[in-house]
Amino acid sequence: MVYELYLEAVRTKVTRFEHASRLINGKELACAVGMAFRQAGLPMPEPEEGTEAENFQNESLKVLEGKTGVEEKLMDAIRGYSRRDEKVDEDMLAVLKLAYDAGL
């Protein structure tokens, strides 16, 4: 899998449009969360494999809300993630790390 494609997709969704475009899967969510944690100067989150993506999203938002330095469109993208049928897997963890290391 080419994880860098998720990085480019999320960058495009939060920089090229007036409003952030919807994240379409858990890998894009993981990517956005990694970018946001990096921008906020926080340590990279470490969700466990098998965690519901919705729980990962909610826990990440609890930590990120009110932090400075995070692009608002990136936060909007994370807030707007709505898939409820995914769990954190090995690919999501790899994308999370890649995005955290890259920032935005």
Automatic annotation (TrEMBL):
<protein>
    <submittedName>
        <fullName>DUF3837 domain-containing protein</fullName>
    </submittedName>
</protein>
<dbReference type="InterPro" id="IPR038406">
    <property type="entry name" value="DUF3837_sf"/>
</dbReference>
